[in-house]
Amino acid sequence: MERYRHYGTSYTSSPGAAHVEEIHAEEEEEVEEVMYTEEEVEPLLEDETQPLVQETEGKTVPVESKNGKRTEGGGGGDAGGGPKYSVFTWFVVLGLLGVWSSVAVVYFNIVDYDTVIARAKEFRMNFSEVLQGKLTAYDTDGDGDFDVEDAKVLLGLKEAKRLHVGDTPERQTASGSQDVESEIQAAVPLPPPAEDFVPDDPQESISPYGDEANTIDTTGVLLAEPQTEESAGESAEYLTSSKLTQEAELVIEAEKQPEAADVDPQSETPKQTEAEGTSEKQAEDKLKEKAKKKKPKLLNKFDKTIKAEIDAAEKLRKKGKPDEALKAFERLVQQYPQSPRARYGKAQAEDDMAEKLRSNDMLQRAINTYREAAELPDVTSDLLRATLKRRAERQQFLGRMRGSLATLERLVQLFPEDIGLKNDLGVAHLLLGDNKGAKKIYEEVLGVAPDNGFAKVHYGFILKSENKIAESIPYLKEGLESGEPGTDDGRFYFHLGDALQRVGDNSAYDWYELGHKRGHFASLWQRSLYNVNGLKAQPWWTAKETGYTDLVKVLERNWKTIRDEALAVLDQNTGHFVPEEENLREKGDWGQYTLWQQGRKVGNACQGVPKTCALLERFPEATGCKRGQIKFSVMQPGTHVWPHTGPTNCRLRMHLGLVIPKRGCKIRCTNETREWEEGKVLIFDDSFEHEVWQEAESYRLIFIVDVWHPELTQHQRQTLSPI
User: Fold this and answer.
1) Looking at residue 582, what is its pLDDT?
2) CA-CA distances (angstroms) from residue 95 to 67, 88, 101, 113?
3) Lower CB count within 10 Å: N or C terminus of the chain?
């Protein structure tokens, strides 16, 4: 079973061409500023080189040569010395040399200007952050930094402003910040696992389907395949940027409300003023309470000094480049081993790589790195919470249920006031099959938060599993009506409807219909929870429709042989027929003798019925059906089986009549009721609602054979997880 999904990644191309064009444009501008035309240069030279004083009478007047040089003496002889140049001439020459040197540096890429500029910016940002960190103690106007206005207040030149709740730095950051850290609010919600994930170490893992024969076949009990509980725990632990933005908008609206009322202050009575003052105070208290909810702080003091490097690595991860992000974070961890945020980023990158490679080993590396990040000193409380929470989720995903439970227990000890973490801990107990431990957790939660919908639906589920049907209904109903995250789960609609049916309340079908509209059930009647989409769905089938006519013929031709072996076992040792343990009976006695379960033989069960097993060995659609069973079923008079549905639409169920009383035995599937016949096979889809009555005077014995749904491919039959 693999549980990984493919996720699309997007890449952005670097604007290299535009960058080159900008450089060339700058070069051209620089050259144009310095260059002159020939006509402009010559007058300048003539003006600058006029002799001001004749030092001696013996010296001759300078004569200009053809190439523009002036020499002493008319003929250019040696008597008067070498050539002379003005200061401005040298200035022009040096300027031209500088321009062409710059062109050469850029053209031949002698200096990496991008690196130089990036380092300069990094130094400026880090120095600015450190300086601001030391000066924020003198921040008087609440804008999050120390500026000129704060300096005026500090020097006594200006009065300090009163800080309004709506102007807090948290609000401004939430509404307008484009910083990478604002996107990393907490651990990423766990994706719903696919059904074909195989834990890498079965000895440390709890098989998600180990006890399913007794717990889910028709009741839909919570399994170790956490689909909604994982995301349910995200209800209130972390504020996302979008939520903070909404709160900021509420603050703005609240501030604008007093301005909207254009009432003349002189016309107000003292009572009105007093009432408005009280309401304003209450509104302000509410705003202050909301302002306390800040976005998670994942950076400690040291991490803030390397924030630019962390952001650069995080951007790679956000762009869907986990391999590059992992290398970047590994370098950061090697360079700064005491950085909790760098270690957390490394764990996230390993987590992403595990998804990309579909690797259990890589996922285990991520789990270990999450632990290392949580154990570092000076880790912020928000980062500690996010790290351990994500670690617990990935442990559950990998099948490390007990490890996940231990991680969540530590989280609850560290953050005892966090209701969401306690709810997650309750789910961990349920996934281990520890309903008693989960019940205790949810009783504690409801004692503190009696309206918590998540705790209500799970507590109601536990009560129903204890057969406290009437008591479970209000908890399930109120929990679903709350609409809180984690409550909109098909299992809760399933169990609420089932509980209502058992107390005779027809509103059960209203909840089933709502569950169908919410996408949890295929239809009002077909309410299985583990399905493959697109399979043909109908309650009753014929042998020809299934394509399994050979199997049906073998069963019907050999029904007496099968019956005689079953009766021999029933007479000699009734212990082989164990009572039904799925809490499906309203009353009566119902026993089962199982030969195959989840595609495997059950112990030495075939020793008692060797001929029957030999007949079935030829039909892998039955013996290899990992989502079904092959068993004998004996039902005594006075038995009634509640309306129920099977767990999956991936199988069809065959009933071969062996011992059938003349009257009183019938089965209903949806709105059609039929009766068994000895030596004949009934075929139906047990993912549709069905109900059984045994009102005869003697026992009823049938042989049940589950087969794969005929439309499943061979690959699907091999890869679907057992039920």
Assistant:
1) 84
2) 21, 10, 10, 22
3) N
| Distance from C-alpha of 492 to C-alpha of 458, rounded to nearest angstrom | 8
**Mean local confidence (pLDDT), 224-229:** 37
Higher per-residue confidence, 432 vs 40:
432
**Cα 569 to Cα 422, 562, 631, 661, distances in angstroms:** 49, 11, 13, 20
- In whole angstroms, give the CA distance from residue 370 to residue 341: 11
Q: What digits encode the pLDDT tens for the residues 611-626?
A: 999 999 999 999 999 9
Chain-centre distance for alpha carbon 201 = 24
CA distance 533 to 723: 17
Burial class (CB within 10 angstroms; exposed 0-12, middle 13-18, buried 19+) of 120: exposed
Beta bridge partners of 530: 648
**Distance separating alpha carbons of residues 304 and 471, to the nearest angstrom:** 53
Q: Which element (helix H / strand E) includes 535?
A: none
16-27 pLDDT, tens digit each = 333 433 334 344
Q: pTM, whole model, 2 decimals?
A: 0.61
C-alpha separations of 97 from 102, 282, 419 in Å: 9, 73, 73
User: For the residues 688-716, what does the mean pLDDT come to?
Assistant: 97
Q: Could you read off the pLDDT of 116-174 as tens digits, one per residue?
A: 566 665 555 555 554 555 555 555 665 555 566 666 665 555 665 544 433 433 333 33
Indicate the DSSP class of residue 184.
-
| β-bridge partners, 706 | 653
pLDDT digits (tens, 9 = 90+) for 574-610: 667 889 888 899 999 999 999 999 999 999 999 999 9
Mean pLDDT of 716-723: 95
The 10s digit of each residue's pLDDT in 303-318 is: 999 999 999 999 999 9
Task: Say if residues 420 and 237 touch (Cβ distance below 8 Å).
Answer: yes
List for the chain the helix, strand, coil content (%; round to 5).
Answer: 50, 10, 35
Do the Cβ atoms of 217 and 651 come closer than 8 Å? no
What are the b/e assignments for 126-156, b being 16+ CB within 10 Å? beeeeeeeeeeeebbbbbeebeebbeebeee
Lowest mean pLDDT among 95-99, 140-144, 388-392, 407-411: 140-144
Nearest to 665 by CA among 632, 633, 683, 692: 692
Q: Which of 568, 563, 589 is nearest to 702 (CA)?
A: 563
**Both tokens of residue 340?**
């909790």
SS3 of residue 405 by DSSP: helix
HEC readout, 201-254: CCCCCCCCCCCHHHHCCCCCCCCCCCCCHHHHCCCCCCCCHHHHHHHHHHHHHH
Helices (H), 340-485: 340-357, 360-375, 381-398, 401-414, 419-431, 435-448, 453-465, 469-482
Task: Collect all residues with Cβ–Cβ distance below 8 Å to 189 and sequence separation of at least 6.
Answer: 230, 231, 234
Tokens of 560: 């007496």
Residues written for the chain: 723
* Token representation of residue 182: 């604002």
Q: What does pLDDT average to over the chain?
A: 75
Distance from C-alpha of 485 to C-alpha of 493, rounded to nearest angstrom: 15
Distance CA 627, CA 650 (A): 7
% of the chain residues with pLDDT over 70: 61
The answer to whether 515 and 497 have CB atoms below 8 angstroms apart is yes
